[in-house]
Structure prediction request, 421 residues.
Amino acid sequence: MASLDHIRALSEVIGPRGSATPEEAKAADYVAEQLASLGLSPERQTFLSATSAYRPYALAAALALLSLFLFWQPQPVGAAAAALITAVALASLLLEMQFRPNLLRWLLPVEQSQNVRAIVACQNPLPQTMSDEDAPMGAVVPAGACPITVVITAHLDTHRTPLLFRSPLWLTVFRWLMPAGLGGMVAMLGLFVIGIFSPAPALRLLALAPGLALMAVFALMVQADLTPYTKGANDNASGVAAALWLAEQLTHAPLQRTQVHLVFTGCEEVGCYGADACFSANRAALRDAVHIVLDQVAAAGAQPVVVRAERFLMPAHSDPGLLALADKLIAAHPEWRAGAIRLNAGYGELSVGVKHGLRAIAFGAIAPDGSSPRWHQPSDTIENIDEATLARVQEMVWAFLREIDRQNASGNPANAGSATA
Prediction:
């Protein structure tokens, strides 16, 4: 089945696929059917997830505004209560931005979502146990096993269409919004702590300035949650289609010494819950694995890229050895017209792979000006998909997989995908 047909089925037939919605589940069903038609045995993993990317930030802003109200009450009790609530909200927000458990997650509702995973075994597993000295990353690889494991993730769900993504100007506001909100909370916390020891009225007036900024954050977060979901042809039906295309290639031409896990994740758009659940549940099987992310790989007006790093709160860097291998392949294939990029003010499953200690790298397609066309907009439809861009990304990732396997099969598994390869 052609990749464009997969994109059409997901974005047009199923349509918008909000996180933990029935439509996201239909997308999982569709992927499972496609994998089964290739002779694979898809497995389903269920997990609980948040249903909104914006509610944690709206709740944190609301708690900070409640603290501001308390700061205007009789002191020092009001200031102490304001400081305590703001400190908890700020700490929780920082943890949320690192995809870690926190009070905001515990207070907000959750729904069930799912991942779909299929494993393509290598063609020539090891005939005997590999020694620690020869095994990749020092692991002991038993007889009958594949010495290299690659996990490919592509998310099924789609985002809402908030005002913050409607234009370049609003995207600039979005990029400054989180730093401004965090800075405002830090400033308010400092004033609240001082207010415990000082009744100066000027402190309350000073706290109004960051309070106004947090009112804007709260309003924009609420507005975002009231918007419809995008059809997500590029983000991320294109990544799912590319992963299904790779599944077809792998079933026709299995890799020699590399086992591939194809994981179609739920709830990426609300905090990468699906990837986190997969990596947590399969920690032993994916130890030292290579993690490849496929996300937004087919927008019209974009060119194939490898992602060197992405940053939401803290930067997440692609593995240096994998980057070196990707750079080498890109240089050898000018017909791909591919490059590299660093992404700011956004997250993806690369961040979660790095969090879990995997050797991660992400592939996508970005416009020459560094933007992601129609990102979280109603116009992310199949009419704005470029088949040629999608084909080049697919070929690039397929070549990348084969080169990892070639290095491994040639007797140098310890260096497969490493900086010295």
